[in-house]
Amino acid sequence: MQASATPRNPDWEEDELILVLDAYLSAKPQDLQKHSPEVSELSQLLRRRFHQLGVVGAYTLRNVAGVYMKLQNLKAHDPAYLARGKTGLKAGNRLEKDVWHRYEEYPAELHQRAEQLRKFIQSDISVGDVEDELLSTDETLAPEGRLLMRFHKRYERRSTNRAKKLRQFSADNGGRVFCECCGFDFERAYGSRGKGFIECHHAVPISKLTPTQTLSIRDLRLLCANCHRMVHIAQPWLTVENLKALLRK
Ligand SMILES: [Zn+2]
Ligand SMILES: [Zn+2]
């Protein structure tokens, strides 16, 4: 068997930087040594995330050395560190700087997002099997990052959730199923071929759920493919009501 080339490790993503920054801000600097348990736990968590996403990386993928290095990189943005006259290692990518600036004033919000991510990663549900060409565009724009976006899509597509939402909606609307934004009714337009054809959208982004909230059928909306796409196409995601107002103009 021919040995395949070692895959290049993927660039750091927002989800990961949130976890790393949260660890950086929560720990005492002396806890973040190369051999501290905090660093190896973080490495395990990030590796598990890639496993869930179905990404195959080299054995060096987010290993302890890589994670430790990223923690060092963060010092370049840390006013407390720089005030001591120290200079950090040269900062990594732009996203790292963005994430730092976005959350430096809001450590509680950062911590909540990190906790949410940890919860989903530890749930160990594989989301690597969500196949959709359009998903990759959505993912890069997802306010919640790639992993939670996959969970979001997975929830929207799960047939039991769909079936339940459709049953409720149809019962409330005289047996009809239509887009809650533009009113498009696939059955009216395409006859029996379009019967029951509609997409489900979870109106609350996972990143906006409070720690006690979970994804819920109550937050599902029925949308045609066009409207659904328009909701997700840019940050921040629009509410169905906002999109409706946009359409009326
Ligand atoms: Zn629509
Ligand atoms: Zn959606």
Offer a concise description of the structure.
The protein has helices at 14-26, 37-53, 64-74, 79-83, 94-103, 107-123, 135-141, 145-157, 159-172, 186-190, 225-232, 240-248, and strands at 199-202, 220-223. It is mainly alpha-helical and 249 residues long.
Write up this protein.
With 249 residues, the chain is mainly alpha-helical. It has two domains: 14-123, no CATH class; 135-248, no CATH class. The protein is 52% helix and 3% strand. The protein has twelve helices and two strands. The chain has helices spanning 14-26, 37-53, 64-74, 79-83, 94-103, 107-123, 135-141, 145-157, 159-172, 186-190, 225-232, 240-248; strands spanning 199-202, 220-223. Strands 1-2 form a two-stranded antiparallel sheet. Helix 1 (14-26) packs across helix 5 (94-103) and helix 1 (14-26) crosses helix 6 (107-123). The protein is elongated and about 70 Å long. The N and C termini lie far apart (61 Å). The protein binds zinc ion (2 copies). One zinc ion (ZN) is lined by residues 156, 201-202, 228, 231-232.
